[in-house]
Amino acid sequence: MDKLGSLRAFVKVVESGSFAEAGRQLRLSRSAISKYIGELETSLGVQLIVRTTRHASPTEAGQRYFERAASILAELDAADQAVSQSQSAPRGILRVNAPMSFGTMRLGPVVADFMARYPELQLQIVLSDDLLDPVQDGFDVTLRIAELESSSLVARRIMPVERIVCAAPSYFERHGKPQVPDDLRRHTSLTYGFLLTGNQWKLSGADGDHWIQPAWSLCVNNAEVLRDVAIKGQGIALIPRFIAADALASGALAAILPDYTAPPLALYAIYPPTRHLSVKVRLFIDFLVERFGKDAG
Amino acid sequence: MDKLGSLRAFVKVVESGSFAEAGRQLRLSRSAISKYIGELETSLGVQLIVRTTRHASPTEAGQRYFERAASILAELDAADQAVSQSQSAPRGILRVNAPMSFGTMRLGPVVADFMARYPELQLQIVLSDDLLDPVQDGFDVTLRIAELESSSLVARRIMPVERIVCAAPSYFERHGKPQVPDDLRRHTSLTYGFLLTGNQWKLSGADGDHWIQPAWSLCVNNAEVLRDVAIKGQGIALIPRFIAADALASGALAAILPDYTAPPLALYAIYPPTRHLSVKVRLFIDFLVERFGKDAG
DNA sequence: GTCTCTGTCTACGATTTGGCGACAATGACG
DNA sequence: CGTCATTGTCGCCAAATCGTAGACAGAGAC
């Protein structure tokens, strides 16, 4: 039995004086009201309503129960209101800019779940590898994978993004496998544009930092393209592990120089430095932290 | 959504610290609890529970909501109790006939609770495996475990009763374990009298229905006796699971032929086909449905 | 590294919800 | 007094929801 539905029906019957009118106000049929009241009476073992023609009135027990039930329903509504408004169900449009690769590979399922949780929200997502200004370009939040940096923009770190040096086994068979960072100078690199390291790779290990200017043959601002070209044996790429994950698992790519790491990147949410972050932006960012914070980059 | 169910699930999760434990206490599956909490959060537009591995704890909003929800649930129970008890309780004598095994094993605690709720009632219970006519023999209600059937008697289905084929491990050690229903022909069966299947067992599986006339050495109209004889290794029994439950748990009995099922039985309440079922009978039957309806037969 | 328990998710059968329409009862009205 | 309109109940049935089983991935315990 839908106990809450029964209580609402009962309270409305007592308030309105009839099943039919209660049904009209609750948008339920007379038979539904009748069943609710009947089941409530059965479960309590008490008659609550005296049915006379064209009128329904509470019994003495019914009147006492009505007072308590009405109070309980009001308290429940108040509790719901209070908790909803403490974090009022966000509505409106949330505009998000995210990097292409991350957007296509990782953002979809998370956004789907976010939408399920906050059905009143509408999301506009632009996948672009251009670093868009969230203020000037009209986004609520911009997701970026970047190195740790201090910036005038306000950012929240979502998750670390590990990068690896990798190439296809066929490349290593033809060109040999670099053993130390300096070996990379004699190899073809597939380079990401727009990163601060530009065409110079920094790799750090127990023996300190290495700055390498590899012989780059490709510079592109999309790591998926770099991955795909690397898979075809055209060079060595330095790309986020999450982009290479499937290729690594299948053997299409192999990582090298495991004792060296590139400067850590992270996924950041960048948002306008307003005094109060809007609720929907905060919820979205919190949601990303919750979902991606547990992921191993 | 069953809002009250969600509230109970939520309160129990906060109290117990986990979805799994809340499920155990509420006799619901983990996925049911997960759905309830998820729907509650969606409907309120608020995250109430932080899920970490092996632990669930309330968010700040969730803690506040928990306090109000727990209070509301307590008030509702109190209101129900107050109105149930205020009613001039049903009085008089309720005469019940029930099967011996079910009566001795399952009915006592339920009857005790029923009597607590309706202290003005007096119950006369006759445990008998004879199928007594509720009109002729003066009972208000007769409980029977039987196969689904059409009958001129009016009946209300209380709960399903699953049967299993089982014997003591010592029996299997001496005689081998049947792998398919037909193997039962070469085994000693302990047979229940009075059932429609009589001395012929019907077992159904993916390969169709099997009618087996096992070599019976005992035919008795009491499944407890069958269980006890089976425990002593004297044969294979086809008996209700609730009767065998303790022996199965302790290892005194082992079930076989899990891919096959006997025709489903159910516990029925049979009552006179009068126009208005008396209040006390209706309350008793509803009470049984409430208590046994959720049990796994 | 393996095991066990967790929470999520999907598919699906069981159960409940809720409306339709028939019915009997009865007050309003002419 | 007869008729009409509205009421509440009930059986039937389609739609919706409940709740589980089982698969899965994550992670703490050992």
Strand content of chain A: 25-35%
CATH domain topology of the largest domain in chain A: D-Maltodextrin-Binding Protein, domain 2
Largest sheet of chain A: 5 strands, mixed
General form of chain A: rod-shaped
Work out the largest interface and the residue count of each chain. A-B, 35 and 36 residues
Number of DSSP helical runs of chain A: 9
Please tell me how large the radius of gyration of chain A is: 31 Å
The percent of residues in helical segments of chain A reads: 40-55%
Instruction: Briefly note the structural class of the backbone of chain A.
Output: alpha/beta
Calculate the terminal CA-CA distance of chain A, rounded to whole Å: 47 Å
Q: What are the secondary-structure elements of chain A, in order, as H or E? A: HHHEEHEHEEEEHEEEEHEHEEH
Gist?
2 copies of one chain form a homodimer. Chain A is α/β, with parallel strands linked by helices.
Characterize the structure shown.
The structure is a homodimer. The first copy, chain A, has about 300 residues and is an alpha/beta fold. Chain A has helices at about 5-15, 20-25, 30-45, 60-85, 100-115, 170-175, 225-230, 240-250, 280-290; strands at about 50, 55-60, 90-100, 120-125, 140-145, 155-160, 165, 190, 200-205, 210, 215-220, 235-240, 255, 265-270. The first copy, chain A, folds into 3 domains: about 5-85, Arc Repressor Mutant, subunit A (Orthogonal Bundle), CATH 1.10.10.10; about 90-160 and about 265-290, D-Maltodextrin-Binding Protein, domain 2; about 165-265, D-Maltodextrin-Binding Protein, domain 2. Chain A contains 9 helices and 14 strands. In chain A, helix 1 (about 5-15) packs across helix 2, helix 1 (about 5-15) crosses helix 4 (about 60-85) and helix 2 packs across helix 3 (about 30-45). The interface of A and B includes residues 69, 76 and 82 of A. The first copy, chain A, binds a DNA duplex (30 and 30 nucleotides) through helix 3.
